[in-house]
């Protein structure tokens, strides 16, 4: 079993930046079995959507609305995720969730049902 713990959310003005983090906790073999980590977000009244993913080979992918503004990286142990969000817009306001799964192909789906581990979420609010 793996637990994901997010941090770094907060309130910023439009155009500002935030750096989030997501740390994985659990048995070493469970963490080492993870081959895909990602970030999702859910705004009030909307469905949860995929934002960015990174595979164990460090291949990244971004949803079009954040491409060029957001980047995602991992530490050397691949147990902590660091999404960097620049050029934030009011429409980026949402609860952001970290997700992970042993299946590397989860990274190409952006579908919540393909991710087995979830964090509790961290709120990001962007004011105009």
Query: Which spans have pLDDT < 50 for at least 5 consecutive residues?
Result: none
> How would you spell out the order of helices and strands?
EEEEHEEEEEEEE
Number of helices: 1
Oligomeric state as shown: single chain
Strand content: over 45%
Q: What is the average of the pLDDT values?
A: 94
CA-based shape: globular
Structural class, please?
Answer: mainly beta
Distance between the termini: 40 Å
**Main β-sheet: number of strands, strand sense, barrel status?**
7 strands, mixed
* Radius of gyration using CA atoms only: 14 Å
How much helicity do the residues have? under 10%
DSSP E strands, number: 12
List keywords for this structure.
12 strands, mainly beta, globular, 7-stranded mixed sheet, 5-stranded antiparallel sheet, 1 helix, 128 residues
């Amino acid at each position: 079993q793996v637990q994901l713990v997010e941090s770094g959310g907060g309130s910023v003005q439009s155009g500002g930046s935030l750096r989030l983090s997501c740390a994985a906790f659990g048995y070493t073999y469970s963490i080492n079995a993870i081959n895909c980590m990602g970030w999702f977000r859910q705004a009030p009244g909307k469905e949860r959507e995929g934002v960015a993913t990174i595979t164990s080979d460090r291949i990244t992918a971004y949803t079009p609305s954040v491409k060029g503004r957001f980047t995602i990286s991992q530490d050397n142990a691949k147990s902590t995720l660091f999404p960097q969000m620049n050029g934030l817009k009011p429409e980026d306001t949402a609860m952001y969730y970290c997700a992970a799964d042993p299946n590397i192909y989860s990274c190409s789906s952006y579908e919540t049902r393909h991710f087995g581990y979830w964090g509790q979420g961290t709120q990001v609010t962007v004011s105009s």
